[in-house]
Structure formats: structure tokens, C-alpha cells
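Sorry to interrupt, but I need a hand with the structure work. Could you add the entry underneath, on a fresh line?
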Amino acid sequence: MTMASELIEKGKRAGKKEGMKEEKIKIAKNLLKNGVAIDLVVKSTGLSKTEISRLL
């Protein structure tokens, strides 16, 4: 692999990871809006309690 292709792959992985995180946050917000308990939101999304508390 060339240096450029390695950087492109690294960027793709970072972008995918960020997109997955954004989707988890979106799901957490919807769960919280519907009255789901924070502990269950943590288990469902894999986000930390701190991250979820920031969404409130």
C-alpha cells in the first residue's frame, strides 16, 4: 500500500466510526424522548452514562 492509500483508508475508518457514533446518539435521543431509563439507553447504545447525560 502506498502512503496515500493508507491515509485514505485511515480517513474512511475514522469517518465510518464517527457516523456510527452519530447514529448511536440519534437513537439515544429518541429513546430518552420516549421515556426509556438511562441505564437501558446505555445498554442499548453502548454510550456511557456521561455521554447520555449530556443529551438530556
